[in-house]
Amino acid sequence: MDDNTINSLREALKFSPGNIPLKQHFADTLLKASLLDEAEKEYKEIMAMADTHQSKTGLATVFFLKGQYSHCNVILEELLQTGTVDFDVLILHAKALLKEHSIDKATEIYKKALSINPAFRDEELDNQLRLSSIMGQDDDDDDDDDEAFESPFIQKADINFDDVGGMANIKKEIDLKIIRPLQHPELYKAYGKKAGGGILLYGPPGCGKTYIAKATAGQVNARFISVGLSDILDMWVGNSEKNLHNIFEVARQNTPCVLFFDEIDALGASRSDMKQSGGRHLINQFLQELDGIDGNNEGVLILGATNTPWHLDSAFRRPGRFDRIIFIPPPDTEARESILKLKLKNKPIESIDYKSLASKIENYSGADIEAIIDIAIEEKLEESFKDGIPKPLSTKDILNAVKRHKASTSEWFATAKNFALFANDSGLYDDILTHMKIKK
């Protein structure tokens, strides 16, 4: 929209400031020209004169484009409460709800929009809310509306064990517990063992627990669901348990599937330490889902990760639940070298001695290695600002950064050592002692 059109409309309004259709046309023109602040002002003035459907929709659109999604949703909800069934309003509302992570409500609104126009397609909404976009199915094949929509956090893993440097023992254990049952189901059935089960990964933060979980899914070409606290916890009584059950149902309907719970200690903390019953109810629900009481977990591979396994309720470690517990230590020398190469890939470098660097950052986590590279880059950027030419990173630059950033795992090992020495009757934390070269 050119400036002449906008100026002409502005001049016309000077002679007819109360002309609502003209003012609406001017506001719409400003919106199309992405002059959002001016458009917002005009829409608000129109609403003060005559609270019209068009002005409300325009103002809601302005708020959406400005990233003020809650304001947008308030206006759209008011419109829908009046009985308005407007396809464009429904689509905008679904998108704004999705931006606020109100997945269930966004799905409900999107379904209403599709009932008006079943042929409609939107890449963002379909990717986040429609099962067909994930599973490659035709919408026409889905007669049941409820089955046509899926949880948005299901992924297809794009890495496998080849992308994980080192960790040979960990890969071997996961291979035996998770991968082989899927590759040779007939052998496991002969011994009465199911393909599935749970593994708990524990260790210092930033050492690749999430990465190895995703690589496990990629190794068996399984779907991957990564679950965080925000996906489950809800302020209303009973909703957290419902959210947890729904996530397990999604996994059961999409086998083979790796279901990964990060920070599982926050969901499964020891019930003896809880003062409120809500947390205990959630843990009981979690245990029921692991046992497959409400559904068959065949083909559902459950991985949990925690930095503090000593805070996890002991019931999670019973057979059939997280009955295999694996210590994920800081990257070994081979893994540190791989991480360095990965993080420095496509960056200006010169003659990096990866082996030497890897030997000097023992007990550094993957996150620590990324931090020292960032420090080295910041130093080079200061030099590059002088003439605008990128300066290559050298081994010396990385070593200087190592001096400025110490391993963050030290504090974790100080705490873990106490549990391994004085609260380790079952030998659960022997791997920590082995890693620290401590003999009891």
Structure, described:
- The chain is an alpha/beta fold.
- The protein contains 22 helices and 6 strands.
- The chain has a 6-stranded mixed sheet with strand order 1-3-4-5-2-6, sandwiched between helices.
- About 5% of the residues have low confidence.
Report a brief summary of the structure.
This protein is an alpha/beta fold and 440 residues long. The chain is built from 22 helices and six strands.
In N-to-C order, the SSE pattern is HHHHHHHHHEHHEHEHHEHHEEHHHHHH
What shape does the CA trace take?
globular
Number of strands: 6
User: What does the main sheet amount to?
Assistant: 6 strands, mixed
Secondary structure layout plus pairing:
Blueprint: H1 3-15, H2 20-32, H3 36-49, H4 53-65, H5 69-81, H6 87-99, H7 103-116, H8 123-129, H9 131-135, E1 154-156, H10 168-183, H11 185-190, E2 197-202, H12 209-219, E3 223-227, H13 229-232, H14 239-252, E4 257-261, H15 264-267, H16 277-291, E5 300-306, E6 324-327, H17 333-344, H18 354-359, H19 366-384, H20 395-404, H21 409-422, H22 430-435
Parallel strand pairs: 2-5, 2-6, 3-4, 4-5
Antiparallel strand pairs: 1-3
Helix pairs in contact: 1-2, 2-3, 2-4, 3-4, 4-5, 5-6, 6-7, 14-16, 17-19, 19-20
